[in-house]
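#lab-general

N.A. 3:47 PM
ok so I finally got the sequence cleaned up, no stray characters, all 110 residues accounted for. can someone with queue access submit it? mine expired

B.Y. 3:52 PM
send it over

N.A. 3:53 PM
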Amino acid sequence: MTDTERKELQARIQTEIDKVRSDVADLKEQAKPVAPENAIGRVSRMDHINNKAVQEAALVKAKEKLTRLEEMLAKSDRSDFGVCIRCKKPIPILRLMYYPSSNKCVKCSG
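B.Y. 4:20 PM
back already:
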């Protein structure tokens, strides 16, 4: 991986981190419970409870993605960055740009 590719990838990872942080904040807001004193109706309350469960699951996944991205950014200056953890071959830069938290090549991830 060239220095230019490494810098581009670091910028891409940082952009993705910023986006996921924003998503996490939005999901936290959407997953808040509705207070019982808010008169929204029984059906609406049940719908909100179902939606809340979906938002909470999405929040967990977003937090996991954020953790993986932050780990990748921290490792981005190491010499083994961009190398498949299984076969030890370089991961194509386009795969890393598309899926920045990838630590395996396409062949090994399948």
